[in-house]
Each structure stands twice: as structure tokens, then as C-alpha cells.
Amino acid sequence: MSTSFEKYNDVLLDAFKNNSRSHEIITKKKEILNELFDYHDVNIEHILFVGFNPGILDTGRYQVSVTQVSKEVQDFLTSAGVNFKLIDLNDGNHNFDVIIATDEYFTFAETDQDQKKLVEALCSSCRRFIVTTLKDYKNQDFKEREFSYPIVVKDDSSKRIYLEHYEFDPSDRNLSFGTNYIIADDGLTLIGPFARRNMFFKQLAKFSLDCGASNFLVHKNLMHKSIIKKNYEHIITIKF
Fold it and tell me: Which domains, from first to last, does the chain contain?
């Protein structure tokens, strides 16, 4: 059964495939990963990508695994020449040097307990460090609570507009249901809604340290920009 994060990543792939600047995106994502790898200065052989990250298209010198990606994403990676192994984190014990789970992976949950389980699953499978991203929900601009900042993606012949709408639960101010809208020349596509739960830096730090992490760092000079919105997310590494 596919997860909401897997379905969300189909939207990311759609935006990437229809972007005339896709090569620039690959370069930028790879530069960020290289900076994180250099910062931690550990031996890296095996990387797990949770979902679709364009940086995976330039990781030829590593052993690469992927999880929570659809058949469409798998076919795209294969056609792009990426040598990868598809894995299920719930199936057996896994050990990866680095796990990359960007695009606010830990917010794809309905309860705090669900989020804790997501953190535990990645921490138990990681030897060196996890890379993830979050918005600063504690200091979030009120205007960002209901909508993402939309983005226009163009290729040589057409354009698409990507927008996220968050409908908050009236009884739980940290829970919303996010729907993605893709507005193309030939119509409108809706994906979702997905349960999304705000996650705070201190909350993720506690969950991580409880799982045996030795360090939790919000990088000051590095930011993650999604392919489908103009909002920036803070890059976080969880070290073991």
C-alpha cells in the first residue's frame, strides 16, 4: 500500500520532469548534499533516499537504495541510469550510512505518535546521519499556514502552476490536511488530501536523541527549496 509521502513525491517528479531547469536543480541539490557530507566528514558508501530527491541523479559513486517511491518514480530513475535497490524499511533490518528524507518527510503524519514512529524507523536504520528538512513552525508566518507560495514551472512548450492548500483541523491546531493543485494548460489535477502534522525543531530533536542520536543540528547557512513551492525549509542533520 502506497503512503501519502509516496503519492506526494509523484507531484515532485511531475514538476521536475516538466522543468526546463532540471539540470540546474540536480546541481544545486548535489552541492548541498556534498556540503553536508563534507561537514560531517565520515566514510559514506550506502545512501537511502526516502522519496524522490533530484540529488539522486548524481550519486554514481555510492551504493543507492530508495524507499517510498511509486512505480513511476522507479521507472524514471531507471531510465535516467540510476542504479538503485528498492527497499521496505518495515521488512527486516537495514543499515545505511546516510538517509536522506527531505521535503518535510516527518510532517506526513496525523499524530505525534505517528511522527515518533517515523523518526524511530529511520534512526534504527542509520549508521552515520540523517538529512531532513522542516519549516520553522514556531515562528511561521500566518500567511503560510493556509497556502504554500505557488510556483510556475516551465518547459519548452508549456507551463504548470503548483500550489498546496492546508485545511487545519479545528480541534487540533497542529494538524492539517494538505491538497496539491497542479494547474496545467489542459486542466487541473488535485492530489490528496494528505494528513500533515506540524513538527517543531525541539520535538524532532527529542525524538532523535531518544533513539540514540548523538547530535541534532539545524544548519544555519543551508536551506532546502522544494520543487513545487517557493517556501524554504531548514536543513537538519541527525548524527549517530
Answer: 4-138+199-239 (3.40.50.150)
